[in-house]
Amino acid sequence: MNRAIEADLLLNYNTDMSVLERQRAHLKYLNPGFDSPLAGFFSDSSMINGGVIDGFLGTDGLNLPMIYGDTTVEGDPRLSISPETMIGTGNFKKRKFDTETKDCDGKKKKIMMMNREDEVEEEEDEKSKLTEQNNGSTRSIKKMKNKAKKEENSYSSDSSKVTIQKTDYIHVRARRGQATDSHSIAERVRREKISERMKFLQDLVPGCDKITGKAGMLDEIINYVQSLQRQIEFLSMKLAVVNPRPDFDMDDIFAKEVASSTPMTVVPSPEMVNSGYSHEMVNSGYSNEMVSSGYLHFNPMQQVDTTSSDPLSSCFNNGQAPSMWDSHVQNLYGSLGV
Amino acid sequence: MASADKTINTDVPEKDVFAIHFLQSLSNLRIQNLFNSPDTTNYRVRKIKKAAYVSMARAAGGTSRLWSRALLRRAAKGNNKIVRFPRRKRKVTWKISSKRRRSDQRAPVVEDAAERLRNLVPGGGGMETSKLMEETAHYIKCLSMQVKVMQCLVDGLSPK
């Protein structure tokens, strides 16, 4: 019932309707016998704002109670708009959730805003128009329906019930004392993302913890990537220089392979090895064995040089999967002869 | 370490995955009879280097990472037999991020460093800065893994 009347009221709004008129309409709705002279009490915009720092939210603290007309009454001394200014209404409606937010400090207004979104969604447009009127700055509606960036537990349990937004933007709450421009909010989100990733990179790159500041760290990261790439080039040069091993014996390699290949029951086609770069094989766990055994079948001519490949296998092993790995490693190394 | 972070996933396979891929690629190179009589060492070096990068990209997850995908694409341009690059069924558009036009305004210190990073990391040209840094992290991990593998190989194969 209440909401029907509210909806009617709001439908009659024009954007160019002054705040004063709107407030008068609200007051009339709330108190049918309300005298208009007192409405003049609210005509001054400074009064409306109530002199809060966060002007955006402060006005909401004034206007919204009149729109939504919650019936619970609680003392909320922290609101900058003292109840005396709401003489006309006589019933400054507090939100039910105020008790829950008693412990939170400067975020009360935001929290009130948040929970109000729970109740009334269709009046967001009006809400935004009001605030725009009051503050003269444009803010997207979505920014108003925001999740708080810092949440207390009690509050977060409430916010989890916030109804699903129509869009799937990532919503950001403007922090207290910061600009609430939509661009600056997006900018801030982006900057925080970047700094979060930079912290992650800082752990990766050795020797980066001493350096503070984005520029230095980024330089360090770039240097590290360059040095890694140069290292790869250098090592590939070294590999190209290493001479192939001369001894080849077919029987020996088959004997070795048969002895260790008991779990390898799959006989892959040689094609699999040649096109061994097929993406599917990468992910399967047993593909390693498959590939190496297939490789062996395909290239019977190469030899396993056990003595020289032992250090190789040990260096690759590092205590993982000993026996199976050894045979594969040996086979592959022997066949390399790079 | 990476798996502790919920939002950024930079898990990299174990060393043996990289090792196997690299060894396969090297043996593949050998099949091509490169090492019997190459004209110059430079040719071999370049081939080995390319094989190292391609095998690293495959070991790191093939086409599921932006940088590895770009790397494989770059490698598969010339040769159609050696490097296979599977095309995705649905078309993936790699548009240059339009936000880069404005990126100079946003924290120019970060942005020209990001520009340099884009030149280094494959596929960086189409990424936003935050995505670029994710890819860089994964790329660094894979690079270091590949370096370890190659170092082991060189140590093992070099004459005592």
UniProtKB/TrEMBL annotation, chain A:
SMART domains attached to this UniProt entry: HLH
InterPro entries the record matches: bHLH_dom, bHLH_ZIP_TF, HLH_DNA-bd_sf
Localization (cell): Nucleus
Top-rank taxon, per record: Eukaryota
Chain positions covered by the region annotation Disordered: 111-160
Keywords: Nucleus, Transcription, Transcription regulation
Nucleus in keyword set: yes
BHLH domain: residues covered: 178-228
PANTHER family: STEROL REGULATORY ELEMENT-BINDING PROTEIN, TRANSCRIPTION FACTOR BHLH63
Protein name: Transcription factor bHLH63-like
From TrEMBL, chain B:
Domain of life: Eukaryota
InterPro entries the UniProt entry points to: bHLH_AtIBH1-like, HLH_DNA-bd_sf, IBH1-like
Keywords, comma-separated and alphabetical: Nucleus, Transcription, Transcription regulation
Predominant cellular place of this UniProt entry's protein: nucleus
Cell location: Nucleus
PANTHER family: TRANSCRIPTION FACTOR IBH1, TRANSCRIPTION FACTOR IBH1-LIKE 1
Protein name: Transcription factor IBH1
Lineage: Eukaryota, Viridiplantae, Streptophyta, Embryophyta, Tracheophyta
